[in-house]
Amino acid sequence: MKDIVDIKSGKSKNVNKKKMIIAISIGIILLAIGITMLVYYSSSDARNFLDQYLFRKNITQEKLNSIELNYNSNVNVFAYNKYICVLAENKLIEYDSSGNLEKEIDLEISDPVYNINNKYLAISERNGSKINLISGSEILWSKDVDGQISKIKVNNNGYVALIITGTSYKSVIALYDNNGNELFKTYLSTSTAIDVDITENNQYMAFAEVNTTGTTIQSNVKIVSIEKAKETPTDSIIYTNEAETNKLILGIKYQGNDKLVCMFDEEITVLQNENSTYVMNLNEEGKNINFANVNLDKNIYRTVEETEGLFNTNTVLEIKNIDNDKMVVYTVEGAVKYVYSYDNVIAVNLGQEIEFINTSGWLLKRYYSTQEVQNIVIGNNIAGIVYQDKVEIINL
What we know:
The protein has helices spanning 15-42, 44-53, 226-231; strands spanning 4-5, 12-13, 58-60, 66-68, 76-80, 83-88, 91-95, 101-106, 112-117, 120-125, 130-135, 138-144, 148-154, 160-165, 171-176, 182-188, 192-198, 204-211, 218-225, 237-242, 249-254, 260-264, 267-272, 275-281, 288-293, 299-308, 312-321, 327-333, 338-342, 345-349, 353-358, 363-368, 375-378, 382-386, 390-395. By secondary structure, it is mainly beta. Strand 23 (267-272) and strand 24 form a beta hairpin.
């Protein structure tokens, strides 16, 4: 190839040759990536090989940082934001992803009920009367309530909703802003509150209730305008969705500001603009559905156990995006003992093997253990594998 000469400058240009080399190199790289992805998705054996040797997703417990659990009292472990937290001997102890002690907070709680949303942790003694909101390594505020706290929800702005029992009402729902100011209370005299949640923009609170005073079960979901409730709590319910008779509500979660995902015993629906839309069946004929949840970001899931022959059992994890209705499927080899989920991560527990999958259906990490896993906790890019005497830390 002859050089191209710039007539004005007299400088030689070999631009075409350089561009051709770069284009060929990029083409080879893209072709290699394409072939790798095609093989990855088409063969489980190839996928396992690539996960282990190319992507390095397989990990074993002896290669991880850990936290020792040397306590005489009751110990609770959970993931909060970027920390693994140990609650024991009236202290909340925060550890970073390397297992280093970050902070100790005095907290007189032995059996906690709590909820976590990004940088906020709302926590109380189970059936206790004091609620604490923690952010980072500080207690932002604490409040005493009349009655016993049975459930807590906190949104991403630090607004806290409580379900309270042990009063003259069947349930009381109390809402606090991020400074600990009580905004309002909702009193339920004939029904029991099952769950509660708050939108990300602090405009609405929803609660699920069950009425069992008659011969049948009646589940309702009610949406409250927080602005109206500040002035007139008794006239603040802007929408009520009455489920079919004997349909049991199990939980609710706002995914965004306008979509309330409702989990019933037999199905999952989405409430939006006063319309209820069916999105997933949890009691499908001919399918063994073991686990399901709605506590993810813009996604829901269920697991279906499938048996091939006498000894071969697989578990199919079906993850559905509630925004675009897209379903992704991930198959786990074996029978699942339990499933844990938070934000955009699902952890499937097979006993001595844990698979961490994101909501796009990609394997993040596969953990192997020499003993049965007791519990799994998931936070922001961090997870903890809990045993009786230690916690193994995984960076996701």
